[in-house]
Amino acid sequence: MAPSVMLDNASDFQSTVATAHSNGTPPRILLLSPPSLSSHPEILDDIVAAHDRSATDIQMLDRLSLSLVHLPDTTYDIVLILLDADQTRTESSRLLTSSVLQLIVKSLKPGGTLTSQDGTLADTESSERSEAIFAGLVIENGNMVKPNYSATDSVPLRLGKQKADGGAMATTSPVGTGVVSLNLTGKRKNGPVEDSTAAPAGVGFDLPGDDLDGNDDDDDELIDENDLLSDEDMKTTLIQ
Question: In angstroms, what CA-CA distances link 78 with 109, 117, 163, 173?
């Protein structure tokens, strides 16, 4: 009896699930192929068939590392690193240098994803994972994601709201006074600000020129210069 043979027609390719945009357009995908797939076009054809060809680009990793091709900036939603012909990532790991990863990150849109065909790029502790983090990617849901720094949350600014615990509150005075008062007791107070530099009642300072005894006459005694020397002093011979 001849042995029976069963053929396995299932594809070994693990497709990446890509969600369409809200406007219905498919996401832009970049497939990065290792050099070994160039000698196995049938494998590459099966991979391409699993994607929308109108929204999918293919580049060779070795040509990208040699700067023979250039990636457009902020274009792709997904960059997929394909497996080698032997279903490993030996070639791709060697070619994913820091400079190549920086080019890939620049080509990703904010919120875009860098992943591998086997889905282990973000899960495995490797130099390529570390270099991807250094290039600006973060790990989210098992993927390397480019942060969306343009999405910011607005914080409303509320003025004139009194704190429930009676804290400080800034209030403004009537128009034209140009005064802003800080109420620390929780009660609103408008109006001009009193001069805090005014001296208290009964307290003063002595200034030069003040007459403390009430007499405006000059009390300095005048001295006649002729009285400084007597007749005897005038007769004394000067010795030089």
Answer: 9, 12, 48, 57
Give how far Cα 48 sits from Cα of 93, 108, 119, 126, 187, Å.
21, 20, 17, 27, 72
177 three-class SS? coil
- Whether pTM exceeds 0.70: no
196-211 per-position pLDDT tens digit: 566 566 666 566 655 5
Q: What is the pLDDT of residues 18-63, one digit of tens each?
A: 555 556 788 999 999 999 998 999 998 999 898 898 999 999 999 9
CA atoms within 13 A on the CB side of 183: 18
- Give the pLDDT of residue 123: 78
d(CA 23, CA 20): 8
CA nearest neighbour of 51 among 20, 23, 22: 20
| E strand residue ranges, the chain | 29-33, 56-60, 76-81, 108-116, 138-140, 143-145, 169-172, 180-183
Q: How many residues can be counted in the chain?
A: 240
